[in-house]
Write a structure and sequence with these properties.
The structure is a homodimer of 438-residue chains. Helix content of chain A is 38%, strand content 14%. At the A-B interface, helix 1, strand 1, helix 2, helix 3 and strand 4 of A face helix 1, strand 1, helix 2, helix 3 and strand 4 of B.
């Protein structure tokens, strides 16, 4: 163990997660490239927080200038936070016209729960059966995708999120949809029968933690309709899918043809500066506002607002959403082609610059193919050996997760794909890899 | 209403709190001085977040340099967060040797509840009957000092915090102490009888929201003993009282002669940069860590760590804690002298550079004197007219709250005191003020 790791364990403890068998110590980064303590450079195929690129000079300058000028809470007037609120709200459907600023996705989802629970007068929550939305106590009680000692609350019902490219591959989409919505009906009925009612459904438009599931068309809108009929609100968690990540639209919920009641934001919003928010219709804030003295000390301070504004500026001026769409198509086509060479990887999943492939223990097309987490990990480590950062997700930790900053340019896209092809070949060829099925 | 206020209400809504009858629009700040949009300067007698002074050049430079170099989560190794963790932990008793970084005091207190509740296996919480510790759903359920629609949880019991300079003035300290501890015993017994058990007591060492209560010696330690005997943990919320604010010690709990089990931090920690933390003994983290995959995306990023380190550097190099002690004594002496001229203000309350006086409707010494919120507000507004920022707190909003950045220098201390003397005289002399008792 390195000296730094010993010092880290002696202060932060050994439980704070670290990537890789041999963790990497980074010392600087720029665009889509990080440099480690030895001077070696790594291509970032993983990080969505440095959304417009590591250490983007416009974001850095905005933070530095505003920090040198004024950093204060919102109990005094300041135009910076209002400028940002206007710019951000302009990206939403007209129905969503208010914003509450927070410091993280966790604070945002926790606040959305407070608003929804107070609105409906009922605690009941519908949530995917393999998802993660933050670390507060209220969110721990709806956490299904990782360890949380609290366990699910009695007010929570879980839904299996269908995946036409995963567990439901080969099945007719309309049958999968009907089954999923029937399950939603049953969960709502169960919440009502048990006296919990329905406060909200909370979902990530990309179903990232689940493994980038491809849901049948009509699943999200059907779920939203049912929750609203039961008196609940629809919360779109855009921490992963927002700010143009999917290339197809600025907000992931746009890809499902719905307008949510509450939109929660975090990670990419300030390019790493701690910044989150909850966007909502005025009517909901007008209900919550008088009932609660909600005040967030750091939320909406002018430095955070300046960071957020700079991110919006760069997204626009560098046409990053359009580029996410274009680069995403190139990658998806390349991944599909790699699937012919390496039949043990599934079809490309995800949208825009959030993409992945499931890794199986035998050809993905085989009826008895099973997700293969060990081989997935081997690919992640093989990519690390090639100095490209990726990770894995999904119920079985068997979906390779790739999510570069939106600033990635075609030459680096090709480097990433070349490394990936090479890593797949290496893992496939390993004598000790469990690939006897081939 | 100004154009900016209209724009603010149209985006953030009208419920987000604003100070003063005529809110002030600030555009820049430096040290203890803020400048409004008209170029008028205000002395900051209120803000504790810009702890080492507004826009302190060393903090600004640290943020700017690190943001231009690397801003990444802690799943990779980085020495900056470890450097900060070591420096911060060195300020605590040896028993407290681990730190979890968060982005706010709310995230910190929410996490402390998770740790305490899991440790004790019981949900029961003891809390002051007029306090505030944050805005998450779990914290809303223990909020007694401001509006939270959730209302108190069934697992919560409240305690009246004694005040030898307020509601209990004139009573013998030992009788007040005995009554307060008897109340604690009863609250613990009630939690146990109702099956909630005792997870924790959470308190602010300065009892700021309560009104800067002067508690009898032995109150906090007696409470801590009782909670521990019942299997609960002691959580010191140092969001207000930490980082040398009290002048007497670096952490407010030091003034009560106890070592807590969990220490939560926020506001001043990053001088305005969103930063919080929970410090605790390794044994508690070793229990929580394996049971929960706790990960905080922004928590402990190198920019936040750089901001935190710079704050510690400035506190040390500018001897701000010692200065808080010295300036605090000057202020307290002056406030005591002002009390002779204006008998309707109470004795000076608080510690170090967090101080206040209660405003009464007649001489504070009178047996029938009552807190006078209208007159308190009049003093706050009269100070605003003199371009000095203060506010008010307490159950009756009748305690003038003064809490300048620790960077304040003696000349500005004297300006603040002169303005205060002047404001008291003005309010006292107003024909329409309810001072007929004089």
């Amino acid at each position: 163990m390195t000296d730094l790791m010993t010092r880290r364990f002696d202060t932060l403890g050994p439980y704070s997660p670290l990537f890789y068998d041999r963790p990497i110590e980074f010392v600087r980064a720029e665009g889509v490239w990080l440099t480690d303590v030895n001077g070696d450079r790594y291509l970032d195929g993983y990080n969505n927080v440095p959304h417009v690129g590591h250490a983007h000079p416009r974001v850095v300058a905005a933070i530095a200038e505003q920090a040198a000028t004024l950093n204060i809470h919102t109990r005094y007037l300041n135009d910076r936070v209002v400028d940002y609120a206007e710019r951000l709200l302009a990206t939403f459907d007209d129905a969503i016209d208010r914003i509450v600023f927070t410091n993280s996705g966790s604070e945002s989802n926790d606040l959305a729960f407070r608003i929804a629970t107070q609105h409906s007068g009922a605690p009941g929550i519908l949530i995917s059966d393999f998802s993660y939305h933050g670390h507060t106590q209220a969110l721990a009680r709806v956490t299904t995708g990782l360890r949380a000692h609290e366990g699910l609350g009695g007010h929570v019902r879980t839904l299996r999120v269908p995946d036409l490219d995963g567990q439901d591959r080969g099945l007719p989409a309309d049958a999968v949809l009907a089954a999923a919505l029937r399950e939603a009906d049953e969960a709502i009925a169960a919440l009502q029968a048990d006296g919990h009612g329905v406060a909200a459904v909370l979902f990530d438009s990309l179903f990232s933690t689940e493994g980038l599931n491809r849901v049948p068309s009509g699943f999200v809108s059907g779920l939203a309709d049912r929750v609203r009929r039961a008196g609940g609100l629809v919360i779109a968690d855009e921490v992963q899918s927002g700010f143009g990540r999917t290339g197809r639209s600025f907000w992931g919920h746009g890809n499902h043809g719905i307008v949510p009641d509450l939109v929660t934001m975090g990670k990419p919003m300030g390019n790493g500066h701690p910044l989150g928010g909850v966007a909502l219709p005025a009517a909901l804030l007008d209900e919550f506002g008088p009932r609660n003295m909600y005040f967030n000390t750091f939320g909406g301070n002018p430095v955070s607002a300046a960071a957020g504004l700079a991110v919006l500026d760069v997204l626009r001026d560098e046409r990053l959403v359009e580029r996410a769409h274009a680069n995403g198509r190139v990658i998806r086509d390349a991944l599909a082609a790699l699937g012919s060479e390496h039949p043990w990887i599934g079809v490309p999943k995800g949208d825009g610059l959030f993409f992945g492939v499931e890794v199986y223990d035998r050809p993905a097309a085989a009826a008895d193919a099973l997700p293969d987490p060990a081989r997935t990990k081997a690919v992640v480590e093989a990519m690390r050996d090639r100095h490209v950062l990726i990770s894995r997700i999904g119920r079985h930790d068997s979906v390779l997760k790739m999510r570069p900053p939106l600033a990635i340019e075609p030459p680096d896209v090709h480097l990433l794909l070349a490394a990936f092809s090479d890593a797949l070949t290496e893992v496939e060829g390993r004598a000790n890899a469990p690939i006897s099925a081939f």
